[in-house]
Amino acid sequence: MIEHYEFGSYIINGIRYQYDIKLYMDHVEEWDGREGHIIRAADIHDLVTFRPQAIVIGTGAYDRVRVEPDVEKELKKADIQLFKLPTPQAVQKYNELIKHGKKVCGVMHATC
Fold it and tell me: 28 pairs with which residues across the strands?
């Protein structure tokens, strides 16, 4: 679960992360492979191979990150539900899905 989000940082399991993150249930990694404010299928391929029921994409505090159509196409093909929301709402959705016992992954842009 994501305990707290504010512009530029997250607290997860009591640890502060001050960068974009990838979430594999409760495992957290820095997400630094993205080019600009665009998410492509290649950016989430590792999450797809984890076989989650859903992937939550946080598009930034001000919803500035664009999700390319190939992401939706790949997730639909893999029968993985997609939620793409501004990061504050994405954090809430991620936590809600975890609370309901869903296998969830996520990518979250920390700033704009």
Answer: 23
